[in-house]
Amino acid sequence: MLLSVVVPAFNEEKTIGPLLDELIEVLDHGLESDYEIVVVDDGSVDATAALAEAVGHPALAVTRLPQNLGKGAAVQHGISSSSGKYVLVQDADVEYSPRDIPVLLADLAHDHPMAVYGSRVLGARALSNGLRARAGLWPRQGIPQRGANVVLQALLRVRFGVVITDPLTGYKLYPRDVFSDWSPTSKGFETDHEITLHLLNRRVPISEVPVRYSPRSRSEGKKIRATDFLRALRVVLRREVT
User: Fold this and answer.
1) Residues 37-87: tens digit of each pLDDT
2) Is the per-residue pLDDT at 89 higher than 60?
3) What is the tens place of the pLDDT at every residue in 126-175?
4) What is the pTM assigned to this prediction?
5) Of the candidates 225, 208, 221, 210, which has an alpha carbon nearest to the alpha carbon of residue 91?
6) How many CB atoms lie within 10 A of CB 70?
7) Which residue(s) pair with 57 in the sheet?
8) Which residues contact 17 (CB under 8 A, 6 or more apart)?
9) DSSP state of 122
10) 19, 50, 82, 231: which one has the fewest Cβ atoms less than 10 Å from its Cβ?
């Protein structure tokens, strides 16, 4: 099996159905090999899990965690129960389009394991539509979020000598074997950065491709907060990198 798509979900009853329908459509028509979709319901108190189960596709499995443990914990659970050569983390909202999955897969190098990150910054710049696009900002995306990205980008460049234009992206494709003898210790959004540091420490190449982005507001269900950026900073700045 080439691809496992891990979908961490917490109270996403408005988007989980349309997201899974689009995922299945893209993967059924865009992959020549088998795939699986692993939805991990992170203790939702709405109908997220039930709506995911109602999709009823043979490649889809839904796991319900007994309580809300955090995105990182849900991602780890999904990875541990997956079997694909590569793992893609797909948020349960509709900020990232599954139609960009073939773009990520096309960038894989087949002679050695590598990770591919979907860069919203490169995607915005590809639009060439005014100052915001040249700065790597999408419509409705906040400037503070872009600033946090710039800070993390600079820290990774200083520590590892690499340039990752969008370390905060939620669209990351990992070779599953990097998790065969290691797993993150964090449980929240900062797990993404712990995985990035682990890849860099193991010298796993990280490539970036432009992707689309449709940010939602806090009132629409966006869950990441400023405190999550502070936790990400703590992960990137810590002395020991596993």
Assistant:
1) 999 999 999 999 999 999 989 999 999 999 999 888 999 999 999 999 999
2) yes
3) 886 677 777 777 777 777 777 888 888 898 999 889 999 999 898 999 99
4) 0.87
5) 221
6) 19
7) none
8) 51, 52, 54, 55
9) H
10) 50
- Nearest CA to 156 out of 50, 235, 47, 70 is that of 235
Q: Is the pLDDT of residue 242 over 60?
A: no
Dihedral sign, CA of 127, 199, 76, 54? positive
**What tokens does 211 get?**
């992707």
Which pair of structure tokens corresponds to residue 51?
């709506």
List helix spans (H) across the chain: 16-30, 48-55, 71-80, 101-106, 120-127, 130-134, 143-160, 191-201, 226-237
Where are the chain's structural domains? Answer: 3-237
The radius of gyration computed from the CA coordinates of the chain, to the nearest angstrom, equals: 17
**Sequence-ordered list of residues with C-beta below 8 angstroms from that of 159, at least 6 positions apart, any chain:** 236
